[in-house]
UniProtKB/TrEMBL annotation:
It is an enzyme of class 5 (isomerase). This is protein disulfide-isomerase. GO terms for molecular function: protein disulfide isomerase activity. GO terms for biological process: protein folding. It comes from the Eukaryota. Keywords: Disulfide bond, Isomerase, Redox-active center, Signal. Belongs to the protein disulfide isomerase family. Gene3D superfamilies: Endoplasmic reticulum resident protein 29, C-terminal domain, Glutaredoxin. GO terms for cellular component: endoplasmic reticulum. Its EC number is 5.3.4.1. Residues 1-17 form the signal peptide.
Amino acid sequence: MRLSFALSLLSLSVAWASNIIVVNDENFDDVVLNSDKTSFVKFYAEWCTHCKKMIPEWEKLADSFAEVDDVQVVEIDADKSRAIGKRYNIASYPTLKLFRADALSDPVDFEGQREYEYFANFLLNQVGAQGKKVGPPSKVVQVHDGNIEKLVENKDRYAMILFTREKDCDECIDTKKAFDELSQAFHKELDKIIIGEVKKNGDEPTDWTREMFGISEYPAVVFVEKGDLQKYEVYQGETTGTELVKYINTKLGTKRATNGLLDTQAGIIPEMEESLAKFIGYNIVDRRAYVSEFIENLKKVDDALFKNEVKYYALIVNQFIAGNNEYVEAEFAKFEQKLADKTVDSVEKDLVNMKLNLLKHIKELTTPETYRDANDVMKAKEESKKLEKDEL
């Protein structure tokens, strides 16, 4: 019986991606329903952006539970394997279901955040299974002569590149660990910066790349400005995760901590501080007179670095000009509630925290004039003019 089962799996070509079992319409039942194991199954589609974002976390889970005999991490492209997708009413991607060995006909839906810790806790709570602790997968990109131009030459993206050699370089090992920390800290900012490594003794040629940057000692770190390989700076600071993160934050205007979370200044555009203080502090009449200058200052902000912030600043401007005095408090309450929602993923949480930080800052900049009624302002201005005229 076991032999025939093994042969059936072989003939149906069960695919493995690291420790993830990849199945399809033909072998789903054999692998998931007839294996006497608990299966945590991801139903995904290749085109799904959210599916792609959770790949590292799903792989980490599979690695963690690789040695747990009675639990397996499985995935199926339900957009292609539509018979299985239809059977389990898969209407959105990704959908995660736990098929317990003792209740295969009644799978449990996973509804938490799509991160390793939440997956692992779900398995622990549902079936008492506990995987081994694994470190986060490295997000450092391997750079070589064949791909450096394609990876780095993007006018909207910076690059931080580590140069290492395999032999006689103990410091390279420590710096590589710091770069792993750096890549984790900025894993949500990969549209802004590439974190890469060039190996002298790697599998791919790197002579041309190392010569271009004049690298002769190891380890070495180079920061490339906005995709221009001719415009770079050799990093001279300490090669610790903390210092590297601090350096990138200064260069990009980002607000990342070493744990990848945002600090309290995220969402606030430094060069708009004076303009924002004026705009929020003015009464509605003076604010409307000042708005053109404010918008011109906002247009000068590098929206490659502050894309989401610029959009939110512009939205807030419109609300204040329209005289929507309840907007800040309503937004604040909405986002506080959203942060408490366990289904909100980490990327969206960043966006929410960024907006909350700006709203808190706006509340700090509020003056007695900020929400003053327009009619009162105009009446006061008329009385002031009349008084000045009388004095003359």
